[in-house]
């Protein structure tokens, strides 16, 4: 039986990775800021990290925050994992971090590079945006009477449970470096996804496409968030919406 540490193990992805690994009979430790016995904020460190890593063979690093601190957290985790003799570090990343110039994406790319240079056995999986994140964004955009979405931006949302299954599979295998990206089954425009969301939630809103400006918008519009050649996900956005909002 393998002992695995999942950082961010109470988050949207981390808790599903944890559930999957435990269902397969593995000992899984959950590290997060508030979950005992391994309550550690990787951004500031603490003695609890060494205890969490003791005897661990594999770390699945899901902890991340768009509010900053990912690079510092990764540096502390890598150093402690090396001291603990961890053999495999698995990292979840995002499709397009090398193409779309968001600050959060730059941090994710920097973490990838730290892991590659760490001297640990490592695996990195990049995926497209989760259905859950898209629903959160669309929920915010749907508050006004007219739903404004960026014009011409395509997306390729993927089911988080499928990503969790893939991460669990990678965690139980040998270090593989950068593995093929994982994208959802369909490339869709944001306005079509917005209309699907409105239909599923029973909201009546006009949808208007608004052209934006800047490098980030241009990169996203050019397909920077997509991996159409790796459309390996199975669950469509409508299927996810049906399960979430229609029971």
TrEMBL record:
This is NAD(P)-binding domain-containing protein. SUPFAM superfamilies: NAD(P)-binding Rossmann-fold domains. InterPro entries: ComplexI_NDUFA9_subunit, NAD(P)-bd_dom, NAD(P)-bd_dom_sf. It holds the Pfam family NAD_binding_10. Residues 8-132 form the NAD(P)-binding domain. GO terms for molecular function: protein-containing complex binding. Coiled coil: none annotated.
């Amino acid at each position: 039986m393998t002992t695995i540490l999942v950082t961010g193990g109470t988050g949207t992805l981390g808790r599903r990775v944890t559930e999957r690994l435990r269902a397969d009979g593995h000992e899984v430790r959950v590290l997060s800021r508030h979950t005992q016995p391994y309550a550690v904020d990787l951004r500031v460190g603490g003695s609890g990290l060494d205890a969490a890593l003791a005897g661990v063979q594999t770390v699945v690093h899901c902890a991340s925050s768009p509010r900053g601190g990912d690079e510092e957290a990764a540096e502390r985790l890598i150093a402690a994992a090396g001291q603990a003799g961890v053999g495999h570090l698995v990292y979840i990343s995002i499709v397009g971090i090398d193409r779309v110039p968001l600050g959060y994406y730059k941090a994710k790319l920097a973490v990838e590079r730290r892991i590659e240079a760490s001297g640990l056995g490592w695996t990195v999986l990049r995926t497209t945006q989760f259905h859950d994140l898209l629903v959160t964004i669309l929920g915010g955009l749907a508050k006004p009477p007219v739903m404004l979405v960026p014009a011409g931006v395509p997306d390729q949302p993927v089911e988080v449970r499928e990503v969790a299954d893939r991460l669990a599979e990678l965690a139980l295998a040998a270090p593989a470096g950068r593995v093929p990206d994982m994208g959802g089954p369909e490339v869709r425009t944001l306005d079509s996804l917005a209309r699907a969301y409105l239909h599923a939630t029973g909201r009546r809103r006009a949808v208007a496409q608004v052209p934006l400006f800047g490098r980030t918008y241009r990169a996203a519009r050019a397909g920077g968030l997509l991996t159409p050649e790796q459309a390996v996900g199975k669950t469509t956005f409508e299927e996810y919406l049906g399960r979430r909002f229609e029971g």
